[in-house]
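Dear colleagues,

As part of the handover before I leave the project, I'm documenting each prediction I ran so the next person doesn't have to rerun anything. This entry is a single chain, and its sequence is reproduced below.
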Amino acid sequence: MAYFLGIDIGGTVIKSGLYDERGSEKAVAALNDPAVAGPVGWSERDMYAMWRTVCASVRRVLAEGGVPPSEIKGVGFSAHGKGLYAVDRDGEPVRNGIISSDNRALPQVRAWKAAGVDRAAYPYACQQVWAGHPVSLLAWLKANEAAAYRRIHRILMAHDWIRYRLTGEFAAEITNISGSNLFNVNTGAYEPELLRLFGIEEMRDCTAPVVGSAECLAGVSARAAEETGLAAGTPVYGGFFDVVSTAVCAGLADQRFINVVMGTWTIATWIADSIPAAEYPYTWGRYCIPGRYFVHEGSPTSASNLEWFVRNFMPAAEQPYRRCDEMVAALPKGATGVQFLPYLFSSNLGDNLSGGFYGLANAHGLPQLVQAVYEGICFAQHAHLERILALSGRDRLLRLTGGPARSRVWMQMVADVAQLPVEVMHVKESGCLGAAIAAAVGAGAYGSFSEAMAAMCPVGTRLEPDASAAARYREKYAYFRELAARLDMLPPAV
């Protein structure tokens, strides 16, 4: 039996997972990698501490899994997108790494948008422009930390830094770097015109060679073997942007499926053979399967809103999430006028929106509030899904991943709101498993990603939409959109 190690690099938690070639989990080790304290709006991490956390998680998963290092046939990655992990000629960080949630470059982004730079860049990058992109952060460094900017030799993403520490080779993984606004998604190469548009022409020679998701440039170095406990020479593969890792775990090998992720973020992802002309500025990237592209829509409007509600309004409840399911299941579908705007963290429908309830009356109690939270999260999610369906056509099957996938009640609501069938994917750690799949394909355990997905990603329950609820949800969703539009016209909440 061959085993594969998947390293998942999130914004605050690093996980290592060990899987056999059938996708069976042997062990997972998760360790916190907290952000460095800084000014409001900054999100940084100590890159050396990040590497030490990876080493500790790998050592722990090897110990807990009981698999000899010699039996691990490959290492893969899943990592958060965007951000900036820049190093000098000696491979040392020029400063702390910057996480994609960082907002320091927001004034620069607003200036670019006012000048139309985002519209000029879109035909090349196929990206929207926001503060956490590498280009935004590089422009900020040029203006505010010139000495660090001048030291940059290679522009890396989170997993590119860890891969370098494991192997000593610089590379930028394709699914992640293609969303950097440095990269021409159509041609599959870095784009000098983007550097010019964003005012960072000096970075032209600082980009790293591109590596495929299942491509190996080198094995684990002797030094990294001592630090991690892995065997020297173990092949290390490119890996994935975490959105792609989840899509792979949902079995997105062709255009039949749309992956819907429900977690802190809600994300809808679809893959295509080409990038169609579309008025809406969709976000595209190069997929792990050569010749294919992925498009995704997302915002932090999902299950974290329910977590906030339970923490504040049901602190003494036993098994609170089970209790929430029971309350929602006992109510008629979409039958109350209570609306919940799931914008505690950010909005996908307007810059001035914040979270809250609307339409409360004295006849409403805790069950109606919980139902409204479920519905509001589904409505915010459906706003993204509608945009993807406008590209893909409606004849699609939704594949659900994330913590809420354990709730049959909630998954049925997703199917009812979308009026599409839903398949629930029983994957506990999509980051680690997806990363292991990249390694399994790279090592030749499977001949293609399609073959690996079919073998390693179990499909669970299928739910059909309730046609009798369609009209009620359609009417309530339309009101949700109208409410959001009207509230967005008000001054921002303080």
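The chain has two domains: 3-243, 251-426+464-494. The chain has 17 helices and 24 strands.

All the best with the project,
I.
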